[in-house]
């Protein structure tokens, strides 16, 4: 779908680009909105899950007999209730192993059994009566330790894929990836200055405020219903059906309002367990995770260990860039976003010689899942830290160094393809000209910046648009609204139909109502499902024009649609008074029945995305505490459909990045158990920690969308880690190579630098 | 024939070649013929790949037509948050 009315900038929008009230706002602030745990069904039972206390253990035997005899217990399930319908290998089998442990428990919190009972207290008692016979094994939670020869081995049959020759011994390294082009060794020979550093980042959780919740019901005929909070209820339907061995059409999934996802709700955890309990108990079962379970048994992001080497000439041209990216993704292969870290790491530069090698590593930690631009923030932290250091060594302004080496249209990207029109240069220039960049800094303050990249994609969407007799419109979409997409859908339909925004209502339809819709991820929904809304509206307009043509007795192609009215296309079509949408809808029962528009497709052409962030940090030299005093996000949105939502996405990504950079981390004890599974000890930023995040939306139209829209949900989390680390380095004179930049770590770095007599790396 | 560029760690499966040429009308045909010609690539193709055709990324797009001179990059299957 090419950009309409190209060249862009000439189309005048009436609704798109305005800031109407969000349609879900009142329900959410008054408590009327139904989230996952708000679902209920007559006769429902309480489901609870027994979890492994061990980081790594063989499960010899599970004795559920005492739990089953407890009055009020209606079902107890274990691995025996999940026969393998997956073929025994691949990602689906790993999902099966994750939702209910089979031979081994791979991490503290791994599900080993579950009960359904008539009350929460009985369910808890029943869990205590389940006896699990474990053979505790040595464990490993650190990515570097896991890669060492002799590390505790998670899988005896894991032989590193992607190396030649294939290893003869198993290891915890699942796969090796390599991307790049040119000759990095030759490039380094041309360099006048080379900086080489090693970095580490800790695992962070998405920190969504709503824990996972699911209510399942399954009848004796095998037909089932599931209500849950998820980023993709069609995905939930398909995965659960396959894991439970039932026909996809027999399972209907309804998505609740969602209290945040950020990638963390793009897979299943408790949903198949709730369904299996409901099947066994023959009654509805509701399972709701506690916050502790969310931390221990959902999917945080990867922890990493990264080496970066970049060479430059003395006039500031990068001659070569090389990186090694080690990401642990929990106990199963293919879960860490190592390859996307490597692919995105150098994507913002024009490089003749680049190499990025990635290792996907398994550890005794929860199975990781996406977190906004999966894999990119950690790689960006490492690369942009080295870039800043190189700029200092060159005596160049960091922004000028970045502009000089920025990727542009025609650049062969570090992951392969050649870029078309991209907005990186525009974000860098806008940063350079932003008042923030010239504002004076106070004592103990430093300014940092970073530029980041993310891919974005389109995917499958299916939309139906119904026009009842009063001419109002209901748009049924299958993409869960996690960032305000219902408003964007209504706006695009209103724009296309030529009617006011508040005449359109968008709902998220259940899985029985529409064709498959991909998960809301990859910054795809406003782009892809929005495009399906536009095309469904065009389909409806065609039908509305046909009704008007039939009413007037003229050919369909003699009717045009303009500002909500069917009109004769020209003087030769005849002299008829325009018919409004409402008039055509009102007459529809007698002119052919209901009027609906529809579109289904797999969208492509999402276009890559870039952002530049500027950050001022003040570091307390007494305590090492870093405070963000000013923060600016500059990003290309293609066309901002609802600018407030776009700004919200920019701000949200920045805030999550700030938390990741300064405080958030999974802390493991020597026993392999998570030490901080709660918001008191896992410190996410709150409003009082933050300044107002300033935003600047650039609109460089995406040629792959009729309005020029580009996804904006993920890129904003990519630059903050590096921007903050660079600001802290400039405030303290110490280059930190490990995040989070928690007060003890920063204080230690400052004190060590003082002892060493100046600037150093910590 | 379309030029297919492989990421580095796939090259052992093509005898070290970074680029191979495949006669195919669309992505589906290209992946099938790639797997037939280089069986070592089949496990990755089965695991999931996305492609970039002449600079545009297609997450799936099996029926996306290829021109005789198209440049196709094989990429790991895109995921997002």
Mind explaining what this structure looks like?
The complex is a heterodimer of chains A (762) and B (81). With 762 residues, chain A is α+β, with helices and mostly antiparallel strands. Among the domains of chain A are: 25-33 and 458-603, Aldehyde oxidase/xanthine dehydrogenase, molybdopterin binding domain (Aldehyde Oxidoreductase, domain 4); 433-450 and 607-762, Aldehyde oxidase/xanthine dehydrogenase, molybdopterin binding domain (Aldehyde Oxidoreductase, domain 4), CATH 3.30.365. In chain A, 29% of the residues lie in helices and 24% in strands. Chain A has 20 helices and 29 strands. In chain A, the strands form seven sheets. Chain A has a seven-stranded mixed beta sheet, sandwiched between helices. A six-stranded mixed beta sheet of chain A has the order 7-15-14-13-8-28. Chain A is globular, with a radius of gyration of 28 Å. The two termini of chain A are 50 Å apart. The mean pLDDT of chain A is 96. With 81 residues, chain B is an alpha+beta fold. Chain B has one domain: Roll (Ubiquitin-like (UB roll)), CATH 3.10.20.30. Chain B has a five-stranded mixed beta sheet with strand order 2-1-5-3-4. In chain B, strand 3 and strand 4 form a beta hairpin. The N and C termini of chain B lie far apart (36 Å). The model of chain B has no long low-confidence stretch (mean pLDDT 90). Chain A binds chain B through residues 90-91, 161-164, 175-180, 206, 262-264, 266, 334, 337, 339-340, 343, 355, 357, 370-374, 415-420, 454-460, 521-524, 602, 604-606, 608, 704, 713-714, and chain B through 5, 7-10, 12, 43, 46-47, 50, 52, 55-61, 64, 71, 73, 75-76, 78-81.
């Amino acid at each position: 779908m090419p950009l309409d009315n190209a060249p862009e900038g000439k189309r005048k929008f009436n609704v798109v680009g305005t800031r109407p009230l969000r349609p879900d706002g009142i329900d959410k602030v008054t408590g009327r909105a139904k989230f996952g745990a708000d679902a209920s069904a007559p006769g429902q039972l309480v489901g609870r899950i027994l979890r492994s206390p061990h980081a790594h253990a063989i499960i010899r035997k599970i004795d559920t007999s005492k739990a089953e005899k407890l009055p009020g217990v209606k079902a107890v399930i274990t691995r025996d209730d999940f026969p393998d319908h997956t073929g025994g290998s691949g990602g689906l089998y790993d999902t099966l192993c994750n939702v209910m442990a089979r031979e081994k428990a791979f991490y503290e919190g791994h599900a080993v059994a579950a009960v359904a009972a008539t009350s929460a207290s009985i369910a808890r008692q029943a869990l205590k009566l389940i006896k699990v016979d474990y053979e505790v094994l040595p464990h490993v939670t650190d990515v570097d330790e896991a890669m060492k020869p002799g590390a505790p081995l998670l899988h005896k049959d894991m032989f590193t894929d992607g190396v030649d020759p294939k290893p003869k011994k198993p290891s915890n390294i699942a796969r090796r990836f390599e991307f790049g082009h040119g000759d990095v060794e030759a490039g380094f020979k041309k360099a006048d200055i080379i900086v080489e550093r090693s970095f580490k980042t800790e695992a962070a959780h998405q920190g969504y405020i709503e824990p996972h919740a699911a209510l399942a019901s399954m009848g004796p005929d095998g037909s089932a219903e599931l209500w849950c909070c998820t980023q993709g209820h069609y995905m939930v339907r398909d995965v659960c059906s396959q894991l439970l061995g039932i026909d996809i059409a027999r399972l209907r999934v309804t998505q609740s309002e969602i209290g945040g996802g950020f990638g963390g709700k793009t897979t299943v955890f408790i949903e198949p367990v709730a369904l299996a309990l409901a099947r066994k108990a023959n009654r509805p079962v509701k399972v709701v995770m506690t916050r502790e379970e969310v931390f221990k048994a959902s999917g945080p992001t990867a922890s990493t260990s990264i080496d970066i080497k970049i060479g430059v000439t003395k006039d500031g041209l990068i001659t070569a860039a090389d990186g090694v990216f080690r990401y642990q993704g929990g106990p199963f292969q293919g879960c860490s976003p190592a390859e996307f870290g490597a692919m995105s790491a150098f994507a913002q530069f024009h490089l003749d010689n680049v190499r990025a090698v990635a290792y996907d590593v398994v550890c005794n930690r929860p199975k990781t899942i996406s977190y906004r631009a999966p894999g990119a923030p950690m790689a960006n932290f490492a690369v942009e830290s080295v870039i800043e250091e190189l700029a200092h060594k060159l005596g160049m302004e960091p922004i000028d160094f970045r502009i000089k080496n920025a990727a542009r249209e025609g650049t062969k990207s570090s992951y392969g393809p050649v870029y078309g029109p991209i907005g990186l240069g525009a974000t860098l220039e806008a940063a350079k000209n932003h008042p923030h960049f010239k504002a004076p800094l106070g004592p103990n303050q430093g300014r940092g910046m970073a530029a980041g990249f993310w891919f974005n994609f389109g995917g499958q969407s299916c939309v139906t648009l119904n026009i009842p007799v009063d001419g109002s419109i209901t748009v049924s979409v299958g993409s869960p609204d996690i960032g305000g997409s219902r408003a964007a859908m209504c706006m695009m339909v209103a724009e296309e139909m030529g009617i006011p925004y508040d005449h359109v209502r968008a709902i998220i339809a259940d899985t029985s109502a529409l064709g498959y819709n991909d998960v809301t991820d990859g910054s795809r929904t406003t782009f892809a499902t929005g495009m399906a809304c536009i095309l469904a509206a065009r389909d409806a307009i065609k039908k509305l024009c046909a009704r008007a043509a039939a009413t007037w007795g003229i050919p369909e192609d003699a009717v045009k649609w303009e500002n909500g009215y069917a009109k004769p296309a020209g003087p030769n079509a005849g002299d008829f008074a325009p018919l409004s949408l409402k008039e055509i809808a009102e007459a529809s029962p007698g002119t052919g029945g209901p009027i609906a528009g529809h579109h289904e497709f797999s969208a492509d052409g999402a276009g890559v995305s870039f952002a530049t962030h500027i950050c001022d940090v003040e570091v307390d030299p007494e305590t090492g505490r870093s405070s963000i005093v000013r923060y600016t996000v500059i990003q290309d949105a293609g066309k901002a459909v609802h600018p407030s939502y776009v700004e919200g996405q920019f701000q949200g990504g920045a805030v999550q990045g700030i938390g990741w950079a300064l405080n958030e981390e999974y802390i493991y004890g020597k026993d392999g158990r998570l030490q901080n599974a709660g918001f008191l000890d896992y410190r996410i930023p709150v409003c009082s920690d933050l300044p107002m995040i300033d935003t600047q939306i650039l609109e460089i139209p995406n040629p792959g969308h009729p309005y020029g829209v580009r996804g904006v949900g993920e890129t904003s989390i990519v630059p903050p880690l590096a921007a903050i680390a660079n600001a802290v380095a400039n405030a303290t004179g110490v280059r930190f190579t490990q995040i989070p930049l928690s007060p003890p770590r920063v204080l230690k770095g400052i004190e060590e630098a003082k002892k060493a007599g100046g600037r150093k790396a910590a | 024939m379309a030029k297919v560029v492989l990421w580095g760690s796939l090259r052992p499966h093509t005898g070290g070649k970074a680029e191979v040429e495949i006669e195919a009308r669309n992505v589906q045909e290209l992946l099938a013929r790639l797997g037939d010609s280089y069986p070592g690539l089949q496990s990755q193709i089965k695991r999931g790949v996305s492609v970039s055709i002449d600079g545009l990324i297609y997450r799936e797009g099996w029926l996306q037509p290829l021109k005789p001179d198209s440049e196709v990059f094989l990429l790991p299957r895109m995921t997002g948050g």
